[in-house]
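Look over this record as teaching material.
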Amino acid sequence: YNYNVRETNGLLKIPGKSINLFLRDKTGKAIGGIFCATYCDTLYIDNFWIDEEYRGSGHGKALIIQAEGIASNMGCKLSHTSTFSYQSPEFYKKMGYEVFGVIDEYPDGMVQYFLKKRL
């Protein structure tokens, strides 16, 4: 890690904060979340999920907009993530993300998409 920080002239640590947001139901149970890292003025969406019962109600859109807003306020200019064909590539596209890479050699026709968006 220290080597990487030196080689990037410290950019790897900017802003260097995690963004972890949760969606909870009325009882306080977690029904969704987005877990992100920030580095090199970039937001990386590592894990993002909404319980199946709550999908399609705008909750995912609200969480991602909130995470992007926080990252933008920290100075991030780009967001990126990856998702599989059976997960949510269309959701990310609707949110303004564009595919910049694909791995299509997984078994059973699974495809992994790498997506990015300017903030």
The chain has three helices and six strands. The chain has a mean pLDDT of 97. The CA atoms of residues 97 and 117 lie 5 Å apart. Residues 59-73 form the longest helix (15 residues).
